TrEMBL record:
Source organism per UniProt: Pseudomonas baltica
Domain Multidrug resistance protein MdtA-like alpha-helical hairpin: 103-172
Bilayer topology: Lipid-anchor
Pfam families in UniProt: Beta-barrel_RND, BSH_RND, HH_MFP_RND, RND-MFP_C
Localization in the cell: Cell inner membrane
Protein name, entry field: Efflux RND transporter periplasmic adaptor subunit
């Protein structure tokens, strides 16, 4: 005999089974992802020598264009192209024969003028005696004296012509006017030079020491001057400002230089002033015309702040931006003002204070307002801080 409650119980168990199956089919709630981890560096002010990096080019202290000072045919090039020469070294030989002929002609002119001088001097002496006994008139004696003075002038002129001819003969041997490195020859043997113009033969450039001409904007100079006058920065006590040269491949030149002077005039087209520094170049590795950068030590900051270069980003307007982690463990964006580089770190002029934590790694994974897990490189341990 079946129980009246059995159908009801069966229906109840069936409903419970459907409910259990439905519950098993629903997806589990996802676990909350942990905050992204970033590495920060705490801002610690320290004494800094502020360095400004400027662009420029190397310049030879002395450049001489070797030119033909007399007309003639080039007989021989004596020097080796690209070599170092000393002042007075023979570089070219110009045909001396026509010039030697001019010297001999001038020598003959001197002898002729001296002979005429001898004759007029004797005549003058004779007339001086005759005028005393009224054998000749005073006018004739004075004319003889004038002829003697004219002959003296002719001798002086002839001797000057001889001197010029000898100088021209000496110019046939072209010598180096300065020490330095000489470039390629601009003429070859057989070329006619100096015909109506002083023909360029070669160029010599001094390489030791060498100058670096760099440009700095008047705005930067004005900011530095105001900071010094306001007491935020201190002037360097050194008699000369130290300079470091950065070569074209980005490596620093091993020998230090000094700043010589800054120009007095501002370039109207660029608003910049030229600064000249000097560097030793004993190995002749630095060549004029090379593009370089120069780092100048310009001031001292007792409470300077620097951040790694990788921590600084630029926005669309070109402004420098860093990300900091505030006291609540959230990322905030901060605009800063940088001024120069020191040991591969940006020198921060405005925008950061002591103790603030600047994100230096993990920037690509965070955005302003996000909570993060912080690791401070100041102590090198993970704080385990999850905010």
């Amino acid at each position: 005999m079946s129980s009246p409650f059995r159908p009801a119980c069966c229906r109840l168990f069936s409903c419970l089974g459907f409910l259990l199956l439905a519950a098993c089919g629903e997806p589990a709630a996802p676990e909350q992802a942990p905050p992204p981890a970033v590495t920060v560096e705490s801002v610690k002010p320290e004494a800094l020598t502020l360095t400004t990096e400027l662009n420029g080019r190397l310049v030879s202290p002395r450049t001489a264009e070797v030119r033909a000072r007399v007309a003639g045919i080039v007989l021989k090039r004596v020097y080796r192209e690209g070599s170092d020469v000393k002042q007075g070294d023979v570089l070219f030989l110009i045909d001396p024969e026509p010039l030697q002929a001019e010297v001999e002609s001038a020598q003959a002119g001197v002898k002729k003028a001296e002979a005429n001088l001898y004759q007029t001097r004797l005549q003058t002496e004779r007339y001086q005696e005759l005028v005393k006994i009224n054998a000749v008139s005073r006018q004739e004696a004075e004319n003889a004296r004038a002829g003697f003075l004219q002959s003296e002038a002719d001798v002086a002129s002839a001797r000057a012509t001889l001197k010029r001819a000898r100088l021209n003969l000496g110019y046939a041997t072209v010598t180096a006017p300065i020490h330095g490195r000489i470039g390629k020859a601009l003429v070859t043997e057989g070329a006619l030079v100096g015909q109506g113009d002083t023909t360029a033969l070669a160029t010599i450039q001094q390489l030791e020491p060498i100058y670096a001409d760099i440009n700095q904007s008047t705005r930067q100079i004005s900011q530095l001057r105001k900071a010094l006058q306001g007491g935020r920065l201190q002037a360097l006590a050194k008699p000369q400002i130290s300079a470091t040269l950065i070569q074209e491949d980005g490596t620093p030149y091993p020998l230090k230089g000094v700043l010589l002077f800054s120009d007095l005039a501002v370039d109207q087209s660029t608003g910049q002033i030229t600064l000249r520094s000097e560097f030793p170049n004993p190995q002749k590795l630095l060549l004029p015309g090379s593009f370089i950068r120069v780092q100048l030590d310009q001031a001292h900051d007792a409470d300077g702040i620097t951040v790694p270069q990788r921590a600084v980003q630029r926005d669309a307007a070109g402004k420098a931006i860093v990300l900091i982690v505030d006291a609540q463990g959230k990322v905030q964006e901060r605009e800063i003002e940088v001024n120069g580089v020191k040991d591969h770190r940006w020198v921060v002029q405005n925008g950061l204070s002591a103790g603030e934590r600047v994100v230096i790694e993990g920037l690509q994974h965070v955005q302003p307002g996000m909570a993060v897990t912080v690791q401070d490189v100041g102590n090198g341990t993970d704080s385990g801080e999850q905010r």
